[in-house]
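Changelog note: in this version the structure field was regenerated for every chain. One regenerated record is shown below for reference.
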Amino acid sequence: MTKARLLRLSVVLVSIFMILLIIVYWDNVGTAHFYLHTSFSRPHSPGAIPGITAGEDWEALPDVDEFLAKLLSSSLKQNSSIPRKTEQLLVQGSSKPVVSNLEENVRGYDWSTHNDRNSLDQEKLQIERQRTLREFCANSSFTFPTKERSFDDIPNYELNHLIVDDRHGIIYCYVPKVACTNWKRVMIVLSESLLDQGVPYRNPLDIPREHVHNTSTHLTFNKFWRRYGKFSRHLMKIKLKKYTKFLFVRDPFVRLISAFRSKFELENEEFYRRFAIPMLKLYSNHTNLPTSVSEAFGAGLKVSFSDFIQYLLDPRTEKMAPFNEHWRQVYRLCHPCQIDYDFIGKLETLDEDAAYLLQLLKVDRLLRFPPSYRNRTASSWEDNWFAKIPQAWRQQLYKLYEADFVLFGYPKPENLLKD
């Protein structure tokens, strides 16, 4: 009888172990290259990025996390001899991008030479940016929605902006209107998640825009449930602990102006139907609107910036659905008080930050960050854009985006908020 029980217990344990092996080893994207950013191999020298230390252990993990961590660690020695084909030097790619998208045609590219050895002390910048973020996350007197919840409290669908590259141990939280198209292109090249005639893309600008923003192209945290089931959160935590995590932000009001320009000043069928028609009806008293954006533009029917601000401030907007990602607050997209980011880049210093980050990740030999757009929306334009917006609305708008201003060290726009 005792032998039978032991046999049944052994079968159960072996089955569980085999399931875990399948989860870890046989997933086609999974953690096959998890070894790259563990304590055996760091993406940068100790202290290069504040908050990362060389040789850190798998400490303070719950039982299941600890078991999975050990299981993953056991594969390090096996994988350490695997050649990484992405480590070969890559050709820089064509000198000019193939531009087919209307938005990119309108903006154009800035191909001027940028000095990567800029005078900014990048390490000190990162220390300051992270210090500001952590201080306000820990400051009990500074509150905003969702601040106090834990990582486990974040719904799965809110983790859809965290893109994972298991080949190089990188997690990128993308923020629309903050160079996210090109950073997504970089992630596709690094992860080799998209092929062109059977060969992974090497030059980020060769990747068509429609593929860049296709959700099926990227492995994101919200997809983990389908892959790993009840182990998904445990694996997320392990990757958050061991991978290099970064995001890029920009002045919140300037980001709103940029979103308005690209989604409502250019002909965009989706945004016209989903957002422009309701705005024109609610805030401009238009009826019998054209069904297509080209007809509306031809008739001079466009959403004004004032309409857009009213829409953001209208309490009915959030009751109907969460903000669209192009104007949703960064703290709601990337959860900076729940996720300890290793690198915080800013659009205002994009060229310098991007070059420094790729160097820290040790992928600067593989690719270069695509060139900036010309005529990037400037913060100096804020006064003109908000000139016709009532002061009370500006103050309400600031409160709506205050957390993004404060957490990421952007000064309060006093000139817009005072008489």
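Spot check on this record: Residues 119-250+328-383 form one domain. Strands lie at 162-165, 170-173, 195-196, 199-200, 244-249, 343-346.
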